[in-house]
Amino acid sequence: MTKMKFLLLLAAALFTLPAWAGCNSVAEYISRDLVLYINDKQCDSDKLIISFSKRINSGDSHAADLIEYPLDEECTLTDDQKNISCHPKGRTPLAGAAYKLKIVKKVLKGEVCGEKLKKPEKIDTGQYVCVAGCKKKGVPKKLYVP
Hints:
By secondary structure, this protein is mostly beta strands. The protein has one domain (3-144). 12% of the residues lie in helices and 40% in strands. The chain is built from 2 helices and 11 strands. The chain has helices spanning 3-15, 71-74, and strands spanning 25-30, 34-39, 49-54, 67-70, 75-77, 83-86, 98-108, 111-112, 115-116, 121-132, 142-144. The strands form 3 sheets. Strands 5-6-7-10-11 form a 5-stranded antiparallel sheet. It has a 4-stranded antiparallel sheet with strand order 1-2-3-4. A hairpin with a 2-residue loop joins β8 and β9 (115-116). The relative contact order is 0.18.
């Protein structure tokens, strides 16, 4: 097993740990109009937080501009982290939406973690795909597992 494959398998194993196991980054969405993260603020919080910022005039948003709410006040994340369901009257862009985790193949090319890949490698990665409330304006259709 190459060093790269070992690191990728280790990262996949860490993703499946429960939220209490340490630093946890569940999902993110970055577009020209919206930046959104569901995480524990790089281990800075004992609970998961939804952080987001709408980009004005499609410009960059800065971390200082992020609006934050505790995830458990806005959405429900199943213990296995396979489903996210957000309250219809929530205060985030995810309000009223529900997502299901889907495992997809991603092709890594070039350099990964400072190591030059000899050939492209396919890895499994996750995407939360919107399954309900998806037609509401501004609701992301997919959230990506970092």
